[in-house]
Design goal:
Blueprint (H helix, E strand, L loop, with lengths): L2 H13 L4 H20 L4 H7 L4 E10 L5 E12 L5 E7 L5 H17 L6 E6 L8 H15 L8 E4 L6 H15 L19 H18 L9 E4 L4 H12 L3 E2 L1 E4 L2 E4 L6 H13 L5 H7 L2 E4 L16 E3 L9 H9 L4 E3 L8 H9 L3 E3 L1 H4 L2 H15 L5 H25 L6 H19 L4
Parallel strand pairs: 3-4, 3-5, 6-7, 6-11, 11-12, 12-13
Antiparallel strand pairs: 1-2, 2-4, 8-9, 9-10
Helix pairs in contact: 1-2, 2-4, 2-16, 4-16, 5-6, 7-8, 7-14, 7-15, 8-9, 11-12, 14-15, 15-16
Bound molecules: NADPH dihydro-nicotinamide-adenine-dinucleotide phosphate (NDP) and (2Z)-2-iminopentanedioic acid.
The site of NADPH dihydro-nicotinamide-adenine-dinucleotide phosphate has 25 residues, from helix 8.
């Protein structure tokens, strides 16, 4: 790592020694920035500022369960960087949520949002609330209590949250309802809304579709495609489901899906009918992926304790799309993919591959797409939802999908060309980090580094 970047990294580590996920995300970006800083040392102060959130809000979220007992969770919003637009990024509800995880996500979001080409700053939030096993009424009460505090810190021109792990259309709806009541206004303050109250077509599909569009662009540089390819996908939530759908659209064959209890391996491929079963299972019945194996008589492997997905990446595939959670694939698992002839990996999740896994892909010449580039379609389409809300009209499905695809093609081109310009051809990690950084850095500098 460049000397000046090393100094910044050391201070990040010593300031918050208990934030390993945040350190991991920062280290990767600072490593990439070496050649930029050598050419333009004026950006050293910008880097010092960019690693520090503009504001962190932490609050108490009390809620009553169906027995009338009180629970107290912790809520957060990290407003990381507003230099190029209102803070923008999802809310995560998962028991593992803490400041380290949300700061890593908010930090990545800054670069990702910059890459989309839209005027979006970076933020992230959430709670250590576990929606699993909660009744509909409990989830509703929790969302309402969460928004009872968060509403005063957000706004359509200030900070626009959306979904992430554990937060989908249902939760966004409850939070939007509470915001509208408290603020006494109808604005596009959240994205991922339902279609009847200001949502955008294609937003549910966007992250998964976008990941596959990016992977398709990457594959085409080597004259390869999804056609006939066997594809390992982890997770079975929003991103995994629509990544699988687009893989099928492009003639590929998804063969795995997982949740935090285990993974299924369907060697014949998950077709449209089976995928419809998964969507109903996960989105309506809120069941476990194990039930797929029973329904279709395929292999199921338990993987508890989470987030150990070990085994899934041992399946023989051409392409891998990790779409569950951070650090779900380590160096050994990456090597299993390499040994089995995998040619491309695109991250649908945020930071699912450990630094060792990424190193392994680079060493063995695989195509590797970092999440901040390949999963940017979700937030980009959130940006399109904000535009539609401001215009007070809805674009048709084809129009939003066309814009999403165009944005993903541009992010691919920009990351690829930037990597080449800085002497790291084929390294999408460096390309995405540098390209994402430059726009934000220029804006921060122009505004006087406040
Ligand atoms: P969902 O909650 O819809 O689905 C998450 C899936 O991953 C579930 O199958 C879940 O299993 C599994 N999972 C979550 N945590 C763990 C864990 N610790 N160990 C094993 N499995 C786990 O979330 P999304 O699909 O929205 O998000 C998936 C990833 O994509 C996240 O990294 C998120 O940050 C990222 N992302 C999401 C975007 C979006 O628009 N939604 C946009 C860009 C990135 P289980 O149900 O058992 O917990
Ligand atoms: O990680 C992400 O980019 C998201 N969870 C989506 C954020 C958004 O504002 O749509």
């Amino acid at each position: 790592m460049n000397e000046a970047m090393k100094e910044v990294y050391d201070s990040v580590q010593s300031r918050d020694p208990d934030q390993p996920e945040f350190h991991q995300a920062v280290e990767e970006v600072l490593e990439s920035l070496g050649p930029v800083i050598e050419k333009q040392p004026k950006y050293i102060p910008v880097v010092k500022a960019i690693v520090e959130p503009e504001r962190i809000i932490q609050f108490r979220v009390p809620w009553y369960d169906d027995n009338g007992d009180l629970h107290v969770n912790r809520g957060f919003r990290i407003q990381m960087n507003g230099a190029i637009g209102p803070y923008k990024g999802g809310l995560r509800f998962h028991p593992s949520v803490n400041q380290s995880i949300l700061k890593f996500l908010a930090f990545e979001q800054v670069f990702k949002n910059s890459l989309t080409g839209l005027p979006l700053g970076g933020g992230k939030g959430g709670s250590d609330f576990d929606p699993k096993g909660k009744s509909e009424a409990e989830v509703r009460r929790f969302c309402q209590s969460f928004m009872m505090e968060l509403w005063r810190h957000i706004g359509a021109d200030l900070d626009v949250p959306a979904g992430d792990i554990g937060v989908g259309g249902r939760e966004v709806g409850y939070m939007f309802g509470m915001y509208r009541k408290l603020a006494n206004e109808f604005t596009g303050v959240l994205t991922g809304k339902g279609m009847s109250y200001g949502g955008s077509l294609i937003r549910p599909e966007a992250t998964g579709y976008g990941t596959v569009y990016f992977a398709r662009e990457m594959l085409s540089t080597k004259d390869k495609s999804f056609h006939g390819a066997r594809v390992a996908i982890s997770g079975s939530g929003n991103v995994a489901q629509f990544a699988a759908e687009k893989v099928i659209d492009l003639g590929g064959k998804p063969v795995t899906l997982s949740d935090s209890s285990g993974f299924i391996y369907d060697s014949e491929g998950i077709d449209r009918q089976k995928l419809a079963y998964v969507m109903d299972l996960k989105n309506n019945r809120r069941g476990r992926i194990k039930e797929y194996a029973k329904e279709y008589g395929c292999e199921y492997t338990e993987t508890e304790p989470e987030p150990n997905l070990n085994g899934l990446w041992g399946v023989e595939v051409d392409i891998a799309l990790p779409c569950a959670t951070q650090n779900e694939m380590n160096g050994e698992e990456a090597k299993m993919l390499v040994d089995n002839g995998c040619v491309a990996v695109a991250e649908g999740a945020n930071m699912p591959c450990t630094p060792e896994a990424i190193e392994c892909f680079h060493q063995h010449g695989l195509l590797f797409a970092p999440g901040k580039a390949s999963n940017a379609g979700g937030v980009a389409t959130s940006g399109l939802e904000m535009s539609q809300n401001s215009l007070r009209l809805n674009w048709p499905r084809e129009e939003v999908d066309r814009r999403l695809e165009e944005i993903m093609v541009n992010i691919h081109r920009n990351s690829s060309e930037t990597a080449k310009k800085y002497g790291m051809e084929g390294n999408y990690v460096a390309g995405a980090n540098i390209a994402g950084f430059l726009k934000v850095a220029e804006s921060m500098e122009a505004q006087g580094l406040l």
